[in-house]
From TrEMBL:
<keyword id="KW-0325">Glycoprotein</keyword>
<keyword id="KW-0732">Signal</keyword>
<dbReference type="Pfam" id="PF04833">
    <property type="entry name" value="COBRA"/>
</dbReference>
<feature type="domain" description="COBRA C-terminal">
    <location>
        <begin position="217"/>
        <end position="416"/>
    </location>
</feature>
<dbReference type="GO" id="GO:0005886">
    <property type="term" value="C:plasma membrane"/>
</dbReference>
<dbReference type="Pfam" id="PF25079">
    <property type="entry name" value="COB_C"/>
</dbReference>
<feature type="transmembrane region" description="Helical">
    <location>
        <begin position="421"/>
        <end position="444"/>
    </location>
</feature>
<dbReference type="GO" id="GO:0010215">
    <property type="term" value="P:cellulose microfibril organization"/>
</dbReference>
<comment type="similarity">
    <text>Belongs to the COBRA family.</text>
</comment>
<dbReference type="InterPro" id="IPR006918">
    <property type="entry name" value="COBRA_pln"/>
</dbReference>
<dbReference type="GO" id="GO:0052324">
    <property type="term" value="P:plant-type cell wall cellulose biosynthetic process"/>
</dbReference>
<keyword id="KW-0812">Transmembrane</keyword>
<protein>
    <recommendedName>
        <fullName>COBRA-like protein</fullName>
    </recommendedName>
</protein>
<feature type="signal peptide">
    <location>
        <begin position="1"/>
        <end position="21"/>
    </location>
</feature>
<keyword id="KW-1133">Transmembrane helix</keyword>
<dbReference type="InterPro" id="IPR056900">
    <property type="entry name" value="COB_C"/>
</dbReference>
<keyword id="KW-0472">Membrane</keyword>
Amino acid sequence: MEPRCSVLVLTLAAALSVAGAYDPLDPNGNITIKWDIMSWTPDGYVAVVTINNFQMYRQIMAPGWTVGWTWAKKEVIWSMVGAQATEQGDCSRFKGNIPHCCKRTPAVVDLLPGVPYNQQIANCCRGGVISAYGQDPGAAVAAFQVSVGQAGTTNRTVKVPKNFTLLGPGPGYTCGPAKIVPSTVFLTPDRRRKTQALMTWNVTCTYSQHLASKYPSCCVSFSSFYNDTIVPCAKCACGCVHKTCVQGDSKRPLAVTGKHEHAHAVAAARGHRDKEAPLLQCTTHMCPVRVHWHVKLNYKEYWRAKIAITNFNYRMNYTQWTLVAQHPNLDNITEVFSFDYKPVVAYGSINDTAMFYGLKYFNDHLMQAGPYGNVQSEVLMRKDAGTFTFRQGWAFPRKVYFNGDECQMPPPDAYPYLPNAALPAPAASLGAAVVAVVAFLVLVMV
Ligand SMILES: *[C@@H]1O[C@H](CO)[C@@H](O)[C@H](O)[C@H]1NC(C)=O
Ligand SMILES: *[C@@H]1O[C@H](CO)[C@@H](O)[C@H](O)[C@H]1NC(C)=O
Ligand SMILES: *[C@@H]1O[C@H](CO)[C@@H](O)[C@H](O)[C@H]1NC(C)=O
Ligand SMILES: *[C@@H]1O[C@H](CO)[C@@H](O)[C@H](O)[C@H]1NC(C)=O
Ligand SMILES: *[C@@H]1O[C@H](CO)[C@@H](O)[C@H](O)[C@H]1NC(C)=O
Ligand SMILES: *[C@@H]1O[C@H](CO)[C@@H](O)[C@H](O)[C@H]1NC(C)=O
Ligand SMILES: *[C@@H]1O[C@H](CO)[C@@H](O)[C@H](O)[C@H]1NC(C)=O
Ligand SMILES: *[C@@H]1O[C@H](CO)[C@@H](O)[C@H](O)[C@H]1NC(C)=O
C-alpha cells in the first residue's frame, strides 16, 4: 500500500509544481496594476496607474517592465506622464491634436531617470526597475499617468481595458482580468483630508518560472569540511542545446553542442535583442549563475556555512540581486556576515526560509563574469539539539532561489556524506521516511 501512496504523493507534488503561477515560498506574491481615475475629461479620463510588486524576493531588473493591454473600444492615449507607449500607431484619422498613441494594444515602458521634471510623477522614471517587496518596499512600486480619449466619461460608460500583459523584463507573468474594486482613498500630504479616486480597477499578475524559461537560470553546488568531495552543479543544469559560450579569458565564442549554426540563426533572427542574450563563460552546467554552499565549521553550539554566488554571464551585472535559501536551521540564524538578511515567513509558524541580499554600495552589485563576478558571505547558525546533524546531507539547503528563480540542485544521492556513514542508503531511507510520513498525512486528511 505504501508504494501506491507515495506514487500518489509524488504525482500530486508534480501536478502542483507544474500548475505554475504559485511559489510555495511566497504564496501571496504577485504584482498588481491599479488604475485610479482621477478626473473626467470632455472625451475620457485621466488615470494614475500604479504597479505594486508584492513579491518578497523577485524584482524587475533592467531593462525594466513593459505593461500592455487591449482597449475595449476605440480609446486613444492623448498623453502620458512618467512613462511612454513604445509605438504611436496609426493616428492618421486625427487632425490638429495628435494623440500619443492610437494603437488598440499599447505597450507602455517607464522613462529613464533624469527626464525633465515636467514629464515625471512620483515613483516613475526608474528605467522600469522595481525592487522586491522584501528587499525595499519603498521602491517596490512604479507609477505613471495616462490621459485617455474617446472613452467613457462616467463610471457607467467607461469600459475597462482587457488582456493585460506584463513583461518583467522577459516573459513569465500572467495577468488576470481587470476588476472594478472600491475606489482608492488618498490622504492629503498634511494627513488632514481624504480624497478618493472616481473609479478604480485592479489587475493581478503572477509569475511562473516555467513560462519564463524552459531551463533553470542558476544551479547549486556543495562542499563540506567533513568530506573533501566537491559536488558540482549537474551537467547541463541550465540546458546545453543551442547555447554558445566563451572559453575563460579568450572571449572566443564556442558552440557547446555542435549546433552552432542554428544558434547563430536564432541569434540573427532575434536581431538587436541578441545584445541582451547572455554571453556565458563555458562551464559544464552552462548556468549564468552558480550558488555554492559550503558547510564550513562545527562549533559546540553553532555551525557555520559559507555561501558564494558566481556570475558566469559576461553581459550582466546583477544589481540588487536576491538569494533565497530554505533550510530548517535558518530560524536560528545568529549572524550573517557581509550580506543583508531577512526571514521569509510564508506560513506563520514555519520559519525555515531566509532572503539574503547585498549590502548597499558594498556587494549589492554582482559584477559580470570575470575576476569580480562573485559575492560571498558566511552564516552562523545556532544548533537546535533536537534536529541538528551532519548526516544525510541535512546541513545543505532544501531549495535555493536566485533573483526569484529556483536553482537546480545536485541529485540527492550525490550530497557529500560523513566518512563514517555506511552507504548512501541512509539518504534513500530518509527519503522513504519522508514519503511515508507525507503519505500518512494524506491518508489522515482524506
Ligand atoms: C496579491 O498580493 C497581496 C499582497 O501579498 C495579497 O494581499 C493579495 O491577496 C494578492 N492578490 C491575489 C489575487 O492573489
Ligand atoms: C458610479 O457612481 C455612482 C454614483 O455616482 C455610484 O453609486 C456607483 O457605485 C458607482 N459605480 C462604480 C462602479 O463605481
Ligand atoms: C484577449 O485574449 C484572448 C486570448 O488570447 C483572445 O481570445 C481575445 O480575443 C482577446 N481579447 C481582446 C479584446 O483582444
Ligand atoms: C487593489 O490593488 C491595491 C494595490 O495596488 C491593493 O492595495 C488593493 O487591496 C487591491 N484591491 C482589491 C480589492 O484587490
Ligand atoms: C558592469 O559594471 C562595470 C563597472 O560598473 C562596467 O565596467 C561594465 O561595463 C558593466 N557590465 C555590463 C555588462 O553592464
Ligand atoms: C525567524 O528566525 C529569525 C532568526 O533566524 C528570527 O530573527 C525571526 O524573529 C524569526 N521569525 C519568526 C516569525 O519566528
Ligand atoms: C531556534 O529557533 C526556534 C524558533 O525561533 C526557537 O524556538 C528555538 O529555541 C531556537 N533554538 C535555539 C537552540 O536557539
Ligand atoms: C564524500 O561524499 C561522497 C558523496 O558525495 C562519497 O562518495 C565519498 O565516499 C565521501 N567521502 C568520504 C571520505 O566518506
